[in-house]
Every structure is written in C-alpha cells, then in structure tokens.
Amino acid sequence: MSDTDLEARHLETLDRDLGRFAKLEMAAAYVSRPLVAPGIAFVFIAIAGLAAAMLLGGNSQVLIVAAAAVFGAYMALNIGANDVANNMGPAVGANALSMGGAIAIAAIFESAGALIAGGDVVSTIATGIVAPDTLDTPILFIWAMMAALLASALWINLATWIGAPVSTTHAVVGGVVGAGIAAAGFGAVNWAQLATIAASWVISPLLGGVAAAAFLWFIKARIVYRDDKIAAARIWVPVLVGVMAGTFATYLMMKGLKQLIAVPMGMALLIGVAVGLAGWLTMIPVIRRQSRGLENRNKSLKVLFGIPLVVSAALLSFAHGANDVANAVGPLAAIVQTSQTGNFGDAVAIPLWVMLIGAFGISFGLCLFGPKLIRMVGNQITKLNPMRAYCVSLSAAITVILASWLGLPVSSTHIAIGAIFGVGFFREWDAERRLKLARLALPDAESIPADERSRRKLVRRSHVLTIGAAWIVTVPAAAILSAILFLLLRQIPVAG
Fold it and tell me: Full-prediction pTM beyond 0.90?
C-alpha cells in the first residue's frame, strides 16, 4: 500500500473519530441543558446564604439565619415559577406578548413592586396565624418559621412540577399552621383566621369566573355580535380601557402602594374614577386612529385590545410583587429579627437585603422555571385571545377591590384561574346557545352528534380536576410537611 493510500486511510479514520467526538459533544449538551436552570438557581440560593452569613457575621445564630436565607431564596424562586404565571399567562396565550417579552416585563415589574412597595402581610404571616406567646422560646419560633418556609417552598415546587398553579399565600399559611400545631398544640392557631382563608377556596374562583364571564358577555353583546364591529369598538373599547385604568389605579392605591402611602378606600375610589375618565378620553382618538382601515371582522378587534392587555399584565405583576413577596421574606424577616433581638411578638421590619432576596428570587424563578406554568395558564385551560385575556385581567383586579371592600378573603391566584375557567365555560354556554338558536331557525339542518359535541368542549376538564385538587390539598399538605420538618429541626442543638 502506498504512502498516499495510508495517509488517506489515516485521514478517514481521523474524520470518523472527530465525528464521534462531535456526536458525543452534542449528546452531552443535550443532556446537560435541563441542568442549566437548576444550576443557576442553586448558585442564587448559595449566594443568598453566603450574603446572610457575611452581613450577620457577629451574630451568635449566624448559621441559622444563613439557613433561613437559603430557604427564603428557594421559596422566592418557587413563587416566581408558579405564581407569576397568573399575570402573564393570559397575555401570552392571547399572543399579545411573546414568552420572552412576558418574562422581561414580569421580571421588571415584579422586582419593582417588591422593592418599591413590598412588605405587606408580613405581620399576618409572622404573628397573625399562630399566636407568638404560645411558643415558649425564641428558638421555637425560629424553628417554626423555618419549617413553614421550607414546607411551603417544597409544596409549591411540587405543584409547579405537576403543572398546577396554587396560592403561595395558602402554602405559607399552611406551613405556619402545621409548625404552630407541632410546637404548641391546636390551641395556638387562630382558627377563625384559618376558616376565612378556607372560605376563599370557593369565594375567589367563583367571583373571578363570574366577573370575567360578565365582561366577555358585554364585549360580545356590544361589539362582537354587532353588524358594524369597528364602529361599535370605537365607542366601547375606550370605555373598557377607561374602566381598566380606573380599576388598576384603585387596585394599586389599595394593594400595590399601601407600604408607601396609606390611602382610604373612598379616596382610592375617587382616584380610580379620575384616572378612568382620563383614560377614556385619552383612548377615544387613539382607538379611532388604530381602527382606520381595519376589516369588519373579529380578528381586527384583537388589535385594539393588545396594548391594554399588555399594560394590565404589567400592572398586575407590580401589584403581585408588592404583595406576594412577603410570602418569601415574611418568615425570613421574622427569623432575622428574632435572632438579633430575641423578641418575636413585635411587628416585623424587613431589612433591605432580605427584600432583595425576595425580589431577585421571584425574577430568577420566573425566568428559569416560569414558562411551563405560563403556557399552561395561557394555552392549556382554554383558548384565549386579547379580548378574553383582557376580561381575565380586569376581573382579577376588580374582584380583589370588591373583596377588600366587603372584607372577604381572596386569593389572586384563585381569582385569575377562576376567571380563565369562567371565560371558557361562558364560551361553551354561548356556543351551545347559538347552536340551539340556529337549529330553531333551520329545523331541517343536520344536528351534531352528542359524542362530537362532547369533544368540542372549550375547557379541558382534566385541568379543572388537577387544579381544584391542588387548591384543596395545599393548606393541609403544607401543614403536615411543616409539622414534620419542625419536629426534625427542633432536635438540632443550638448554643444559647
């Protein structure tokens, strides 16, 4: 064999080896890709623990605080992965926002809400569910808060994995209840407060569903089913945007900004009315300009609801960041305060570094793990378009305001999901109603078989069962897990 043939064969062998290496690299990249998000999350959690240890280096219980910071960061990641989908899912499902755009907007507004106006409901979580005076020592209170924090985070992580949007507030409440019972018995729990929370399982989704269905009925009756849809839209879309602007102004005054400025209910409503009127007058020329040249069909109407839907999603994210960041940092702040002062009965103040853990944790959780729940909320329960998604967002804000005025306990997660179900079930009812009217007008027309009509259901029943079961189980599951964790944690010896 000549030298030329040997060289050619050597090159051929080298090419095969390089090809195998390339395939091996591709396989390694494919296998490691799912590990990138957990890896980043682990780094964030580790940084949170190290930061707490460095900031409280002179504290005798620095290891406890560092561990609590790790649990708080883990909880914040899970809130971002699960809870934020309720705000952004409808906008993504309606194609008003891309997944990347939704994540960017939500991360900015969730962080802004947490840092600018966050810290509400911390005292309720720390001292309103379990009476602190029933716990004998500060270390028992610390173990109870740590158990509640870790148990609720683990439960939300499981719910996200199975694709069920649950109330993070309910998870934290369940965790505190379980740890409180394990620490001081059933008498330590404020059962009246817990009963009102349990009532919200039914109240929240029903109110959200009815409100969303009512708005969708109004839009269909006044715009969609009109002969001249564009002319009707020019009249009613500015009105609806004005209602949205006024509603969100009131919502932010009452919920999102209460840490910065205390606004009475009456004043918040007056501000809402003023902002609503301004929004209505502003949108009249805008909608007229947007509607020029649009065809007289339903697809054209989606253009007019796109911007209001994006704005509503951003404002909901701000208010959510302001309110629900406390689910992650409330127990952590209580642990920090107790470890520093030994006092666990006073109002809880949140240090800036604790709030930063909550704000960045929610944003990281959203970016790394949020798309799964966003797709489920936006696409897999029922099909959404900008009009339907607008009804979901508006009903969520209005329901929270109405419930606050009536003193009813509600969950923003349950309201948003209930609103999506309400929109879907209303569409089913409306389609059936129009089918019956068509059969009355044309009695000789061929009817659709019952099995075919059942396949045309517009709401996935499997999601109704999965989400409903997760809602019911959240508080007891978190409570049982927290009680077990508390009994384990209290066995750890702590230097006095």
Answer: no
